[in-house]
Every structure is written in structure tokens, then in C-alpha cells.
Amino acid sequence: MPMGADIFLDKGTLLEKGGAEDVGFRGTNQSGMRDHNERLVLSLVRQHGSLAKSDIARITGLSAQTVSVIMRGLEADGLLLRGTPVRGRIGQPSVPMSLAANGAFFLGLKIGRRSVDLTLIDFLGNVLGLQRQVYRFPTPDAVVAFVTRTLPILSELLPPNLRPRISGLGVAMPFQLWNWVQFIGAPQQEMDAWKERDIQAELVACTNGLPVYVQNDATSACGAELVFGTGDRPKDFLYFYFGYFIGGGLVLDGQLYLGRTGNAAGVGPMPVPGGSDGKMRRLLNVASMSALADAMTAVGEPSDFLWESPDAWNVSPQILSDWIDGVAEGLASAALSAAALIELEAVIIDGWMPVEVRAEIVKRTHDALHRMDLAGVSPPVIRQGSVGAEARSLGAAAIPLSQRYMIDKNAAGRAI
């Protein structure tokens, strides 16, 4: 399956770090590089919320004239909005420019093991519409039919003059779905269809030729944290996302690290302590929502609601607490192993779950980590994610945004 590779800028405060040389974002005044410089300007404005041309010239090293031309062009294209002039003590007033919400729109398709979502967002990352379908297992036919049915519904949320501004479809999905049939109870023949079908090309066809990019689902969730997350962003962190299985993403030096095949930080197979017998188990067996569902089924509690809504769980307190304890021990072990290899600043935890459950997982993981032997290791801070349950869908929509409108250092592939 072809994969689009993408990169999301770190959202640190560049203005306070000494200029372009420190962060590697210098512009060029040479002709023929306008596209690069436009992406650079848009990326910086996204990071800071709004910037004047003098700020951008100082950060990038571009001439004031070059920046003026770029910003006028982006304003004319509807991508930037002119703010209220800010008058200083001397000289002309400074005019801050910010991103225009209606400048571009993006679709994000999350293909999960129990549900599929299609999301429409604007240029700022605001969700304008969401369509969801729950199923027992995913098939290419079901996914293509879902997109064919729901795309017109979402498109019609925009006035006709704005619909051409839908700039692409990002797809967040688990890789090698056919290898997980024993865990999700799906027929092998149905899942083997994913080997033969080019889902990217089929989605291009059913979206009337939109650019389509495919990425691992947990990596996409991590990308959403970088692009749309709030608060300070550490430069190096490991990211865990709870879905049917647990997945992960890795950020190094403020950049989403994809790895050779696009599956870096696939944390599910990591060996961790998993029970009283002392044997090691895969992280996905102790720290996934599927493990919670299995525990509920074992005592006769229904679990289908887990896949329908992340907002309210009706789980017996003891079963939930026991699951969180196992999750915390597994995550702490995985975090310690990762921190011993890479000097991580933080571990960020998010997922398809109520916020109070996520908060308790973060607390118990912190406690479990600090009960371990940390000699020689600087323990990372354990933090909650800021995007929440929809991180995979938002991360999917962020892929075409990144490809078209942001600096893309690591791009190794492109959409069809």
C-alpha cells in the first residue's frame, strides 16, 4: 500500500530562541522558491497564532520585501487574515496576520478495527462535521461504501463556493490488518482482501480525484497532538493512543518520526511484565481497550458501548480499576525502556476514553514508573494528551494540511 509521509512542525516559541539559525527554518530570497517560502510563512503563523511581517522577516532571514509579497499573495488567496494594526512608539503600525478558517478544508478518515469515521475540518482544525459507522470488523468494501455515502453529506455543510477548497483526504489506519484476525474475530478471507486492494487508489476514485494520503493510525494521532494540541510541546516524547489496541507515535527534536516503513513507535508488540506468573507479555495484551472488553465479557458485562462513544463508560469499578492497574504497569515498563534508549522529555497518553479514565491512567502510570529502579535514567514526565478521543481522525485530516501548507522536511512519498 502506498503511504504518504508527512512532517509536522514543532510548535515551540521560535521568537524566543534566537532566530532562524537555531531552529533550521530559514527562507530563501531566490526566485522559484515561492512555494517553500509560503509554507514557511503559514507554518510560523500557525505556530504563533498571528505574526506581523517584521516578525517573520526576523525569524526567517527573508527580506521585508519578500515577506510582504508572500503575505499579500496568501491574503489574496484567502489563507491569511489581516488583523487590527498595532501602533508602536515609532514607525508604521504593525499588522498581525492570522490563518483564515475558511482558507482550506481537509477530510480525515479513521479506519479502526471496530468503527470508521470521516471528519471535515477547517484550516484552523475546527471540526465542522463527523460521520461514524460501527462494525464488527473492517473490510475495504465497507470503508469505500461508507466514504461514498458520507462524503456528500459533509461536503454539503460548506456553501458551494467553498467546496473546491477541500484540499485532500488523509487516512489513518492500522497497517497489516490481515495479521490481527485472531484478536478481532474477523474471517481471514475478509481481512485478506486488504492485501490485494489498493485502498488509496479506490478512495481517490470515490472522492473525485482528491489527493489521498495513508498513515498509521496511532502515528496520525501523535501528529494531531503536534499540529492541533494545546499547551507546551516537549521536543522529544513518546505518545500512546488507546484504541481497540494500543498504538504509539514518536517525536524527536520536534518532528514526527515515521521510521523506514512509516510504522515507527508501533508500541503494541513491546514486551512488558503482564501478570502474576512473571512472564513477559505484549503491551497490547495488557494495555488495550480490547483487554478491558475481554475482562467485561468474562463476567457477563456488555462491552459494545466501548466502541460507540468515548464519553461515558458503564464498567464495574473493580474491573475498570484492575484494568487501569495493568495498563499503568505496562506503560511504565514501556516508558522506562524507551527512556533508557532515548532521552525522552515526556510520555503523552491519549485515547478513545472518558477524560477521567485517561487522567487516572496518567496518575497510576506516573506512580508505577517511580516505583521502578530509575538509576541512570532521567524519567520522562507522564502527561495527558490535549486532543482527546478524536485524535486519529484529526491526525488523518492533518496529513493533507501538512503536505500542502506546512514545511515538510521528511517527505518521502506523495499522494496519488
Principal-axes geometry comes out as globular
CATH class of the largest domain: Alpha Beta
Per CATH, the superfamily of the largest domain is ATPase, nucleotide binding domain
User: Which spans of ≥5 residues are poorly predicted at pLDDT below 50?
Assistant: 1-25, 28-33, 410-416
CATH topology of the largest domain: Nucleotidyltransferase, domain 5
Content-based structural category? alpha/beta
Topology of this protein?
Blueprint: H1 20-23, H2 34-48, H3 53-60, H4 64-76, E1 80-82, E2 97-99, E3 105-111, E4 115-122, E5 127-134, H5 140-155, E6 166-173, H6 181-184, H7 188-196, H8 199-206, E7 212-216, H9 217-228, E8 237-242, E9 246-252, E10 255-257, E11 271-273, E12 280-282, H10 283-286, H11 289-298, H12 305-308, H13 317-341, E13 346-351, H14 355-370, E14 381-384, H15 391-405
Parallel strand pairs: 3-6, 6-7, 8-13, 13-14
Antiparallel strand pairs: 1-2, 3-4, 4-5, 8-9, 9-10, 11-12
Helix pairs in contact: 2-4, 3-4, 5-8, 9-15, 13-14
Describe the fold and architecture:
This protein is of the alpha/beta class and 416 residues long. The chain folds into three domains: 14-99, Arc Repressor Mutant, subunit A, CATH 1.10.10; 103-216 and 392-405, Nucleotidyltransferase, domain 5 (2-Layer Sandwich); 232-385, 2-Layer Sandwich (Nucleotidyltransferase, domain 5), CATH 3.30.420.40. Helices cover 39% and strands 18% of the residues.
